[in-house]
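Morning!

As promised:
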Amino acid sequence: MVRFFGILVGLFFTGWLLVSFVLGAKEFITNPPEKAVYYDYHLDPKEVSFASDGPLGKFDRQQLQRGFQVYKEVCAACHSLRLVAFRNLAELGYNEDEVKAIAANWIIETPDIDPATGEMSTRPSLPADKFPMPFANDVAAAAANNNAIPPDLSLITKARTGGAPYIYSLLTGYQEAPGDLPDAAKPGPGLHYNPYFANLNLAMAQPIIADDQVAYSDGTSATIDQMSKDVTAFLVWTAEPKLEERNQTGWAVIAFLIIATILAFMSYKSIWADVKAEKKKKA
Amino acid sequence: MSFPWAKEYTPTTAFGQWMDEKLPIGRLVYNSLGAGYPTPRNLNYMWNFGSLAGIFLVVQIVTGIILAMHYAANADIAFDSVEHIMRDVNGGWMFRYAHANGASFFFIAIYLHIARGLYYGSYKAPREMLWLLGVVIYLLAMATAFMGYVLPWGQMSFWGAKVITGLFEAIPLVGKPIQELLLGGFAPDNAALNRFFSLHYLLPFVMAGVIIMHIWALHIPGSNNPTGVDVKGKQDTVPFHPFYTAKDGWALGLFLIFFCLMMFFLPNALGHADNYIPANPLSTPAHIVPEWYFWPWYAILRAFTFDFLFIPAKLLGVVAMFSAILVWFFLPWLDTSPVRSGTYRPKMRVAFWILIVATIILFICGGAPAEEPYVMLSQVAGAYYFAYFLIILPLLSRIEKPLPLPNSITEAVTGKPLEKAS
Amino acid sequence: MATVDTGVETMDPSGSGDGEDGVRRRDFIHIAAVSFAGAGAVATVFPLVNQMNPSADVLALASTEVDISAIEPGQAIKTSWRKQPVFIRNLTEAEIADANSVSVDELRDPESLADRTSDGKENWLITLGVCTHLGCVPLGAAQGEVKGEYGGYFCPCHGSHYDTAARIRKGPAPTNLEVPEHEFLTDTVVKIG
């Protein structure tokens, strides 16, 4: 009985899938799907490397500090960094007093309740505070930015397919829309052409626009490319602050496991030696 | 329960004897995982994945309990509490990555365990109950994994919850109320998140209970083996300990090395970037996919693109997806060939490897966007998947002429016919 | 062919027939493998337990700065440090004199007021608001609360009385209210912790 009904059910599913395949294939041949207009213009992220790449990766703290400076002077006016606290900046090599000063002098104050009146107010940030949000809420953020909410940057290098190279490519990828671009893909009002963006046009105008837009204090030449790379490196750190600890722990654990596995294998071999020997003897 | 030549548990200490009278746990372990369990001597490395899956369930439970100490199941703060684990909790990133990647390695072990059972006929009499319990464990694992993926409350979590509960909507008449019942609302929100967390914490322990029954059911007939021939005598077996504990031990080391490479150096490779964006009910990610271990079923779901008479394609897809797993419950009675191992079934063996290829195609198609050629490929592969279980196996057992079976395991191992012991 | 069925039986994992050296070498491998696995398991326990220690964000709040300019003599405020109450009290001349008039040797927990306050800031008494008996919050910091028989703090849970230097004078508490580590950053800002 099971087999009888089984074959019936099987014939139905198998048959209908094959019929669907034939119908779909016919449709595919007679009426092939058109590629989206932006298919030919979209570009994959550029090849770019960072000190933090790979299992041996470490952060270049000098670069992270420069990247933080770019974030502070270019990005922070619109983009929040809500999961990162000022105290975390100590990991970039700032000392306690510097962290305190950065927090206290941050362009946006931390919202709090006035201890005297109980009303909403703001106060200078403390190292324990997270970076305050540039906009009070999403509606305010959208209203101030042509209806596009600037995404939070704390996790951005992990939250975008393509990761850090994608962010770097996006920052350096702004260009004039090509002349042969179909009308449907042309940047509308308030949009900017960038072939690294999924649908080619994004609301954010090119943020890093000129060399020396940020004055580096460590002598590094602040080219557009360098600033973009530095701020991307900084955002790799904000997204994965434990990266170095992770790589180091990983090597230690794997080294231990390799030795343990070799020992276990030798133990296994010796336990089975007699069974194998007996097999050989008789074969 | 066991073979007559199984070693007898003999406690050596006075305390051991006292315990053995009051609560014979030592005896239980000795007889199930120790020297008291005679195991076929010819098991190959495919037999390691059962214990590996069990160990990874333990890894998941331990890391999961730790994560639950820091996680907050509330739609407003769930995402941030996960980031709190990643950034501030001591070693929190390690537990979170171990748990996320551990789920994948658990499924790798479970899929290889199932494939081994399919090839060597481990589902056949007298091991039907063992197989059925295994299917139940797999279903529980899928439910647990799905609900676990919702907890970080990122974009994929939210839309995964929405799409999967949306499948129930396809059921005529009662579909919509069932979906609302599952979610406790009209879309995933606090109510859904809290119940998913509660069940995600509960189900692994239910699984552990079913696994105990699975092992119990295993010990009644004893392990199957690559020849599929029954154990004939003492010379066919070795004690589980130390022979298979040593083998499982070193295989565990190897599996853990792969796991740690993934967890420490590519921790997000099996995840999806969109899940690092907090859930947003107003915006769907461009390309929703479930976790990789659901891809074959997701491919079957999407392979049904045409209505059949009055049955809408959506409902067909849902029914087919569930049937694809439920068919395993009937497998012991669909395949009636008395020969267990594929090694001695020339035609079944070919059909089996085509099934593996079809399943790999389904894996690829399930992870790909719903466009051609993936839909057409998944239709062909899906058709074969159903045909293998429901048509090929039932018919094959009638027309296939199996190769001659060895008389015993020992004969298969040594290549010499068994001689009567003097 | 006795080897067929006796062979399996004699497979002792410690090995036999390899001579004495063989036995030792084989034993050594098993011991090494098992001890390595054991060491790994023990090493894993550390992070499993350590995750319960205070996390980085909690530790970041381990010190707090308080503005005390608004506290008049005779008043006290209750503030929060490490999620525990802290009493900051501006002692009057009379309270200071009262505290200094007690013979330190007779106290249950002998400490002078000077021991418990910063140099030159003898009027600022900063203590945890946690009774040393069983951890209740004593009364006496807020206006109108009972200050106990010695004019300091009174714990209502089991009746411990503290004097104006927050020293235990009567009741079950074993020691004085704890003075947290603190430092005056300016005349009006004190850093606790």
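Chain A has three domains: 1-33, 39-84+130-241, 251-283.

Hope this helps with the figure draft.
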